[in-house]
Design brief:
heterodimer, A: 5-stranded antiparallel sheet, 3-stranded antiparallel sheet, B: about 260 residues, alpha+beta, 2 helices, about 35% strand
Chain lengths: ~260, ~260
């Protein structure tokens, strides 16, 4: 069968994957600490095309094909990667003392039933025992890997992540960063998981602020138009092949 | 196949909810003691098409994975407990709390409700009740012949009797409660909050001591809703709603392309 019709189908499948990523970015345009995803396409390799039907010369050490090399034919397109873009989101003021934002690289470490995970969503709350926790109820870890208990609502967080009540230091937030952020796995609930060893991060912590999503709606809208048009272009390729095949079946094969 | 349609639908749902919260805040812009709500969002589960770190032939590891998200969910609504501005009413039974703390009132079903709405009055038996007739706890009864009531910063309530000798007499003490996590209280309507598993146990105390706010007689605490901020949030919610609806339109158009593939 004609290869091209499959290539256009591969193109359409990959582009559909892209619209899923865009829809997810747009749905999370208001999610604090959300990092946008970007799809990367790849060519599925290619194979060399030689002219067909040339004579093959057999020699004692094997065969040799003297047919001239025509060029390369790609094998279509696939999804190489969905990369998470870890750029800084805008920092917006909320006046809520339990809102923390990281200005610069780094993540808050939280304890979940499935092990330690990392987040940049600093919309924290206190649970019923007074521990600092995410809105999903996962407790935030201190630099000593312990949950942080805050008994007094009048606390301050200094820019290095130290939590103070009055002039007394209660705990210091665990801020970590990773050498290879591509290896961070999104879990949902704005959490990331990885098996990499975390390193200490020394970014500024801002109390009473939240980091907004780094999704850029304008970019996503433009990309959405592009994807839709490319999808249509791929469909046109498939339709053209259909037309060609129809010709060869109905016209070429017609008996006078 | 239709994942992007559903993903975008979660986005529209979330923004619809966001607008519900904003509308309620704006409707309560003049509600005494009202604390504004804030909706917070989190991303939904991801479908992992390829796990990062999977070994490949040749000994290497895949450096990054392929994960597609399923949209967004409401992580929670938080009551932002910033103080509202105080407004003078000169009504002796209007009491505002300057700082953390809640008044306790007895609900008709016997439970205790918590409120920062300090607009009190007397019922037929002279007890101090709130605007809905719920009795302030601990109960304070104002004597029939009292001509003047004064409420101190620390919650002591004095009555001045109508006799010739005007000696103030202490008739009770207003106590406040606070919670480790006031954001975990659930709103019952009528400016009443109730204790939940997330709020922790109520801690009772004297106004002005141990982290409790002082009382201010003749004042009421206004709502802490900031109209400008809510308006900006409303614009953001509307636009975010439109973005997701555009994603649905695009996915729909692409599906339309598929249906015309076969002639």
């Amino acid at each position: 069968m004609e290869r091209g019709i499959y290539f256009s189908a591969m193109g359409m499948n990959s582009l559909w994957g892209n619209i899923e990523t865009i829809a997810n970015n747009l749905a999370n345009v208001e999610t604090s600490g959300y990092k946008r995803d970007e799809m990367v396409f790849e060519e599925f390799g290619s194979f060399k095309i030689n002219r067909l039907y040339d004579e093959i010369i057999e020699t004692p050490i094997g065969t040799s094909d003297p047919a001239p090399y025509v060029g390369e034919l790609p094998k279509g397109v696939g999804i190489a990667d969905i990369a998470t873009i870890h750029t800084q989101g805008a920092i917006k003021e909320t006046e809520n003392p339990l809102d923390l934002a990281i200005n610069g690289d780094g993540f808050f470490a939280v304890k979940t039933p499935n092990g330690e995970m990392y987040t940049r969503n600093g919309a924290f709350t206190l649970d019923k025992d007074g521990f600092l926790a995410t809105l999903s109820g996962n407790r935030v870890l201190s630099i000593l890997n312990t949950p942080i208990q805050i008994q007094d609502a009048n606390f301050t967080v200094t820019s290095d992540g130290t939590i103070m009540v009055g002039s007394e230091e209660i705990a210091k937030l665990k801020l970590v960063d990773f050498e290879n952020k591509n290896n961070l796995n999104k879990i949902g609930d704005t959490l990331f998981k990885t098996d990499q060893m975390p390193q200490n991060a020394f970014s500024e912590v801002k109390q009473g602020f939240l980091e907004a999503s780094n999704c850029e709606p304008v970019l996503e809208m433009v990309r959405m138009i592009e994807v839709q048009r490319l999808y249509e272009a791929n469909q046109k390729v498939a339709l053209t092949y259909d037309e060609l095949l129809s010709r060869s079946i109905n016209d070429l094969g017609r008996l006078a | 196949m239709e994942r992007s349609l559903w993903t975008a639908a979660t986005g529209m749902n979330a923004q619809q909810f966001h607008l519900d919260v904003i509308a309620n805040n704006l409707a309560n812009v003049h509600t005494i003691g009202y604390k504004r709500d804030r909706a917070e969002f989190e991303d939904l589960l991801y479908a992992t098409l390829r796990l990062p770190g999977t070994p490949v032939t040749g000994g290497g590891k895949i450096p990054s994975g392929i994960q597609v998200g399923h949209g967004v969910k409401v992580a929670g609504t938080q009551k932002i407990q910033t103080p509202g501005s105080l407004e003078e009413t000169k009504n002796p039974l209007d009491v505002a709390i300057e700082g953390p703390g809640f008044f306790q009132v007895l609900l008709p079903n016997g439970d205790t409700g918590y409120t920062r709405d300090g607009v009190f009055s007397k019922d037929a038996e002279g007890r101090i009740v709130n605007a809905n007739g719920y009795i302030l706890q601990p109960e304070i009864t104002i004597p029939e012949d009292a001509t003047e009531i004064s409420i101190m910063e620390d919650g002591s309530v004095f009555a001045i009797m109508g006799g010739d000798i005007k000696t103030p007499e202490e008739i009770g003490k207003i106590e406040l409660v606070r919670f480790i996590n006031p954001a975990g209280l659930s709103a019952m309507g009528k400016n009443i909050l109730k204790q939940t598993g997330a709020s922790g146990e109520p801690l009772t105390g004297t106004p002005g001591e141990g982290g409790f706010g002082r009382l201010a007689q003749g004042f009421i605490e206004m709502s802490n809703v900031n109209v400008v901020e809510e308006m900006v949030n409303m614009i953001v919610a509307q636009r975010a709603y439109e973005f997701s609806s555009k994603a649905i339109q695009t996915a729909d158009a692409m599906l339309g392309v598929v249906t015309t593939l076969k002639r």
